[in-house]
Design goal:
Layout lengths: L5 H12 L8 H8 L7 H4 L52 E2 L8 E3 L15 H6 L7 H7 L7 H14 L6 E6 L2 H12 L3 E5 L1 E2 L7 E4 L5 E4 L3 E5 L7 E6 L2 E10 L4 E9 L10 H6 L8 E4 L5 E5 L1
Antiparallel strand pairs: 1-12, 2-6, 3-9, 4-13, 5-11, 6-10, 7-10, 8-9, 8-13, 10-11, 11-12
Length: 307
Amino acid sequence: MEFNFFHFLVLLNLALFGGSHAALPAEVYWNSVFPHTPMPKALKHLLLPPPPLPGNNNPLFDTSKDESDNDGDYGNADPSRGFGLGNISPTNKTIYFFENDLHPGKKMKLEDFIKPRTGTKFLSRRVAESVPFSTDMFPAILKLFSLKPESKEAKAMKRTIENCERPSIKGEDKCCATSLESFVDFSVSKFGRNVQVLSSEVEKETENQEFTIGNKGMKMMGEKEIVCHKMKYPYAVFLCHSLDKTAVYKVPLVGKDGTKAMALAVCHKDTSAWNPRHMAFRLLKVKPGTVPICHFLMRENLVWIPN
């Protein structure tokens, strides 16, 4: 089913041009919390909505389902919950890897890393909190966005909400942020105001998928982090979570075509609470809790770390 923009545009207009009692604009809120820190470009990207053209019926967000998508759901250690056995098609692309793979000269095929950012933007807190966002209210959500239950958009949205509502696994603290204000508040509640936001960056758009880890510039950024995965939804929703015993690395990459990038890699040093059927264990042929497992973050994803 084609996406109907009407209700979304109404919400967006409220978010941008709300009345005198509307919540503070997102940039003003950022400056009130971090008065000496400019808003990072990766966050500003979420605040500048390009107006859709009249008659544009393209889906507002990526509805494709890929088993390799990392949406922050590592499941529950109880193998009876979630995560069907599924099938893994033979592939040479790098999805999950070992921590000792992070060394200069290591070659990786990063098909997902080069995907461009999507166009979905944050709503203001006032508007986001007025919009239903729960599985109980899912019929109302479909009605709001003029979607049928069997549509690709509806299935992607339901997956997002279910992931936001799932129980936390051991050692995980999580929150789904539906506005920049709630995105900021969760970080401050964990780390205070002396923090920074990191994102993976590519110097230019490229179709090249083959990268090599560069000789200089790799840096371990710390073992306290909040990783925020951008979810599939008509407006920006981030599943932000902090997992015990997790390290964040900045990794310099050089593409086969010469394109340079600075990627964020996350290494989970304790996977004992993950679902044994998680794709990472099947790909790497290891068991939960045995070795650190790493993955790169797509450019859509953001990481908070304390300074």
